[in-house]
Amino acid sequence: MRIGLGAAALLGIAVVWELYKWLGPSDGLVIGEARLLPRTSDLAMPHIPDMLTRLFEPVTRADGSPPLWLEVANAAAVTLGIAAVGWLLGLIVGLALSLVMVRWRLAESSLMPWIVLSQTVPLIAFAPVVRSWGSRIEIGAFEWQDWMSVALIASYLAFFPIAIGALRGLQSPTAMHNDLMKSYAAGWWATLIKLRLPASVPYLLPALRLGAANAVVGAIVAEVSTGLRGGIGRMIVQYAGQASGDPAKSWGPIFGAIILGLLAAGSVALIGGGLRNYRRAEVSA
């Protein structure tokens, strides 16, 4: 049923796209000086069959040029690897912060405003700063690489939902459950392992999915801001500059980014499969 509903949603989007292109005003919907809906020209809105067909055509007219879908897949694999590193970093930081906040109530009052405030920093302005600082790090034979800056920025977006979801999950046991553990003379660590961590699974899994999607978004934006080549973020910018001559081509990496986000979020289902005994009811993060 989930697969069917997902396919129906994609089909509905395609139908709405084509209907608007057919019936919408050629100059788009403009109110005052604000354009609320795009133009319906082939340059602004190519037909969906044209975009799909372009994926299987060569990237350029040069002999031996690979098909567009293969070029997009290679770039998406690079971005996925960087986003995975960022997600792991975000997972470690988010869980560590949630454990500290659930252990000491004063830490929650002190850290939570800063955690929320951290997400208000414009990422497109923050990324070049991280790259500039990282390029100065050199410890012995270790030298900071540009992709590490992108992974760090991806973790910056990923840790927030994980920290919030884990904190809510760890605090979800009721007073009755906590009193029961105290009656067994269980210490804080025993209560954490036997009670709080299993109870946090329905809260943590949606947070992990959201963190994975955020890591992909952070990696793509960071690639654009830092100029890292090889990833799908840089490809989006590069192909967007060629849209005037080949509008369908510029949508290839956009489709790749969408699939990449779905793949990253869906991969958390593998973790959820191993924790199915604790997934009584997932709670939205």
Short overview:
With 285 residues, the chain is mostly helical. It has helices at residues 2-23, 48-55, 68-103, 105-118, 123-134, 146-170, 175-183, 188-226, 232-240, 251-274, and strands at 29-31, 34-37, 138-139, 142-143. The two termini are 23 Å apart.
Structure explained in plain terms:
The model has no long low-confidence stretch (mean pLDDT 84). With 285 residues, this protein is mainly alpha-helical. It has helices spanning 2-23, 48-55, 68-103, 105-118, 123-134, 146-170, 175-183, 188-226, 232-240, 251-274, and strands spanning 29-31, 34-37, 138-139, 142-143. Strand 1 and strand 2 form a beta hairpin. The two termini are 23 Å apart. A two-stranded antiparallel sheet has the order 1-2. A two-stranded antiparallel sheet has the order 3-4.
List the helices and strands and how they pair.
Blueprint: H1 2-23, E1 29-31, E2 34-37, H2 48-55, H3 68-103, H4 105-118, H5 123-134, E3 138-139, E4 142-143, H6 146-170, H7 175-183, H8 188-226, H9 232-240, H10 251-274
Antiparallel strand pairs: 1-2, 3-4
Helix pairs in contact: 3-4, 3-6, 3-8, 3-10, 5-6, 5-8, 6-8, 8-9, 8-10, 9-10
